[in-house]
Amino acid sequence: DARVTQTPRDKVTEMGQEVTMRCQPILGHNTVFWYRQTMMQGLELLAYFRNRAPLDDSGMPKDRFSAEMPDATLATLKIQPSEPRDSAVYFCASGLGVNTEAFFGQGTRLTVV
Amino acid sequence: GENVEQHPSTLSVQEGDSAVIKCTYSDSASNYFPWYKQELGKRPQLIIDIRSNVGEKKDQRIAVTLNKTAKHFSLHITETQPEDSAVYFCAASRGTGNQFYFGTGTSLTVIP
Known about the structure:
The complex is a heterodimer. Chain A is mainly beta. In chain A, about 0% of the residues lie in helices and about 55% in strands. Chain A has no helices and eleven strands. Chain A has strands at about 5, 10-15, 20-25, 30-40, 40-50, 55, 65-70, 75-80, 90-95, 105, 110. In chain A, strands 2, 4, 5, 6, 9, 10 and 11 form a seven-stranded mixed sheet that branches. The mean pLDDT of chain A is about 95. By secondary structure, chain B is mainly beta. In chain B, strands 2, 4, 5, 9, 10 and 11 form a six-stranded mixed sheet that branches. In chain B, strand 4 and strand 5 form a beta hairpin. Chain B is globular. Chain B starts with a strand and ends with a strand. The interface between A and B is medium-sized, with 23 and 24 residues.
């Protein structure tokens, strides 16, 4: 049963620290998304990649967030420096292309204190 | 960009009754409309989707309807069961780039 794998599942960190979240998309999927979920904002798209190239990161605060795909099996989302308002669940999802299902990972619950 | 609105934000129904969740979208170029179900503490998972060349699609107790002219689509759950309790998200995509725009979610509670 192919799944999107995210690590860590939970992260508690102090304000100002760097946070790195990792995602392993389903093998063969060529599209990767990063979403942030909060009670107030729902599911916000932060960035997405097609064939490892960033297509849209307009939803991501550029001053502190960065997203990369070093290779086809790994996507990373970094926050530096982290702030309490970044506390949320961060989901990675992958898909096969246009108008197909996006498969979500289990999410990383980030708490910044 | 696309703007997806979803109503209601919360919905309670008695077990066995039907539940309807409605979404509107703004981008007439959107042509793919998936629905995701998210149980508490879990990941969103696709339950049904519809493409713009179809007006209605059914899968057992779940159906989705699409009105492209009015730019709205709806999720219908019949004979609701307690395990249908979850948050449901609609989404729209125009295909190019496969970027999804999600609604704000509907928290459905099915009362036994």
